[in-house]
What we know:
Elements: E1 11-15, E2 21-25, H1 36-42, E3 47-51, H2 68-82, E4 88-93, H3 95-106, E5 111-117, H4 131-143, H5 148-159, H6 166-176, H7 181-193, E6 206-212, H8 220-229, E7 233-238, H9 245-248, H10 250-263
Helix pairs in contact: 2-3, 4-7, 5-6
Amino acid sequence: xxxxxxxxxxxIEKGNPSKGxxxxxxxxxxxxxxxxxxxxxxxxxxRCISWDMPGFGESPDAPEGADxxxxxxxxxxxxxxxxxxxxxxxxxxxxxxMIIQHFAATNGHMIDSIAIxxxxxxxxxxxxMKPSEFAEPILxxxxxxxxxxxxxxxxxxxxxxxxxxxETKLEAISAMSRSRVNGLALTTRLIADHDALxxxxxxxxxxxxxxxxDDGETPPAYANTIASYIPNASVTIIxxxxxxxxxxxxxxxxxxxxxxxxxxx
Length: 265
């Protein structure tokens, strides 16, 4: 790889920066548009930034072989060079939360606080699935021409909780359908290679870890484990939500996130 970051990242922006900036990092099952309830809720007080990860939405593709180190450098450049801000609050869902774990361990000077939603400390934590068993079928489907739209429809319906409405499912499918094969392959690799267990203790900012009570992909036990490794971390389990907690129960998520932001050290 010749480039260590993507210089043309695109994002959705909304709000008033009177209380600072919140940067939202979406899941594999998402894109910049997947944070609408949060942008609406916090934009009166915060500058809200929701990025399109490389390979999603209007952002360019990631280079071949891009990995977690690359995406962390990409995020750092996005904050410092593109947005030209010194610090921000970071909120990440699923793989977005994984990125934040690695980013916060090495870029603490850029962070006001972090919130990690529906994420894990390590791929396959507590189980016996090998990274290849997760990644190879997905990469094969993409290589064989499965469209992002079809991929999104199947994934979203498999990972939401049993109380998720059809309207919310369609909203999530629409957000994820803004992905491209490049982005889906990138996030597949990031998830499969993820291991932050040795890095979490290096995170020294105020931290909130949330999980949907019905999340079968990254269950509440994962949230408790992440928080146990991070000094000054708290855990909240959100009822009536699966793996896309911010869309499935936005009222509870926003209430807890607001309290956290107002009291972050």
